Amino acid sequence: MVSDAAIASVVALVVTASFPFYLYGAWIIIEAETVTWDVLTHHLKFIVTGLLLTTVPAVVWMIPRFERQFGGLAAVHAFLGLQAYAMLILALTGIVRIFQVKRAHDLYGTPNPGMDISELHENMDSWRWRLRAGVAGYIVFWQLTWVLGMARFLILHTDYF
Hints:
The chain is mostly helical and 161 residues long. It is 77% helix and 0% strand.
C-alpha cells in the first residue's frame, strides 16, 4: 500500500501546480484588449483546471483525514481554505450577473471595445467590485492556506520537525 507521506507529497505537488494556472488565466484576461467569447473560454479553461487541481485533492484527500489530524494548525488551515472558497462564491455572484448582461447585449459575439460596460446595467459597478474583491480574496486566502498546508506537510510527513 502507498504510504500517507507519498500520497501527501503528490497532493502537495498537485495543489502547488494549480497556482500557475490561476496566474496564466488572469494574465489572459488582463492582456485582452476586449474580452470576446473566445478569450473568456480560453481564460476559463485555465481557471477551471486550477480549481480542479485544488478542489479534488481537498475533497478526496484532505477533508476525509481532517478529523484524525484535528488540531490548531489543521483548524486554521481548514478555516483559511473555507474563506478562500467563500471569496470564490463572492466572485461568482458578480461574474454570473456580468456574464448575463454582456451576453444579453451580445458583447461576446460582436464586441464593442469603446463601450463602457458600466452603462449596461445600474448594478454593473457593484458586480464588477464583487468579482474583483472575490478573486483577490480567493488568491490571498489560497496563498495563506497553501503556506499553512505546506507547513503542516513538513511537520506531518517529513523529518525536518
